[in-house]
Amino acid sequence: MNTKNKNAIAFSFGKAARYYDNFSIFQKQIGKKLFKRFSSNVGNIVLDAGCGTGFFSKQWKLIGKNVIALDLSESMLHVAQEGKSASYYVQADIESIPLKNKSVDLCFSNLVIQWCKNIFIPLNQMYRVTKCGGLVVFTTLADGSLKELKQCWERVNQSSHFNSFLTFDEIKIACKIWSNSLEQKSCCFLYPSFQVLLRSIKGTGATYLYNEKKRGLMTKKYLERLINNYPNVNNMFPLTYKVIFGALYRE
């Protein structure tokens, strides 16, 4: 991923930092599942790679772990630090982690690596800094995520506003050099209005997901067209996520 794209992502998440936790229900639900799976029988040092506001850094800290909170966004790290979420705070790119080889017992990364153009790079970085016998555990989004919103936009103006996600098979190929376990789950969230659905994405800093070059089109009339073309389930607006739960076993 080039520097321009990284800066755009950091800026997008930075804008959302102060209210991120109010909107990140989906991220928390997925992260809690990952945390529950791997919170027992791990060593003392945990790297929260892409920590955001430090929500999960704090969960690791509460069970007695020595936590390193790492994020690309300075604003997100500032919120994490204000909440005393971790032992150490590092502003850095997950594609170039400034830690020594084999220096942590577990790397935890919740819904972060989908922002990287080549997910092998962040996975390799996390594997590198993990001690032998340790774990790299992560979640990421796969092809089919946000399909309702993508299809809706395509019906309205015949163009896609979204970056594509990797398929499950492509993610398996990226992980194949390591001993690993991968599982895909489909999650569908229902929102009471289209506006609430959009806020759930924008409020988590994920505006970078769609092409904002056409912002001017988001007029009242255009919004009505989107709503009329969006699938409706008992007056609720569904949004599907394809989530990969992964673990790399450090050898």
Automatic annotation (TrEMBL):
<dbReference type="GO" id="GO:0009102">
    <property type="term" value="P:biotin biosynthetic process"/>
</dbReference>
<dbReference type="GO" id="GO:0102130">
    <property type="term" value="F:malonyl-CoA methyltransferase activity"/>
</dbReference>
<comment type="similarity">
    <text>Belongs to the methyltransferase superfamily.</text>
</comment>
<dbReference type="InterPro" id="IPR029063">
    <property type="entry name" value="SAM-dependent_MTases_sf"/>
</dbReference>
<protein>
    <recommendedName>
        <fullName>Malonyl-[acyl-carrier protein] O-methyltransferase</fullName>
        <ecNumber>2.1.1.197</ecNumber>
    </recommendedName>
</protein>
<dbReference type="GO" id="GO:0032259">
    <property type="term" value="P:methylation"/>
</dbReference>
<keyword id="KW-0808">Transferase</keyword>
<dbReference type="InterPro" id="IPR011814">
    <property type="entry name" value="BioC"/>
</dbReference>
<feature type="domain" description="Methyltransferase type 11">
    <location>
        <begin position="47"/>
        <end position="138"/>
    </location>
</feature>
<comment type="function">
    <text>Converts the free carboxyl group of a malonyl-thioester to its methyl ester by transfer of a methyl group from S-adenosyl-L-methionine (SAM). It allows to synthesize pimeloyl-ACP via the fatty acid synthetic pathway.</text>
</comment>
<dbReference type="GO" id="GO:0010340">
    <property type="term" value="F:carboxyl-O-methyltransferase activity"/>
</dbReference>
<dbReference type="InterPro" id="IPR013216">
    <property type="entry name" value="Methyltransf_11"/>
</dbReference>
<keyword id="KW-0489">Methyltransferase</keyword>
<comment type="pathway">
    <text>Cofactor biosynthesis; biotin biosynthesis.</text>
</comment>
<keyword id="KW-0949">S-adenosyl-L-methionine</keyword>
<dbReference type="Pfam" id="PF08241">
    <property type="entry name" value="Methyltransf_11"/>
</dbReference>
<keyword id="KW-0093">Biotin biosynthesis</keyword>
<dbReference type="InterPro" id="IPR051052">
    <property type="entry name" value="Diverse_substrate_MTase"/>
</dbReference>
<dbReference type="GO" id="GO:0008757">
    <property type="term" value="F:S-adenosylmethionine-dependent methyltransferase activity"/>
</dbReference>
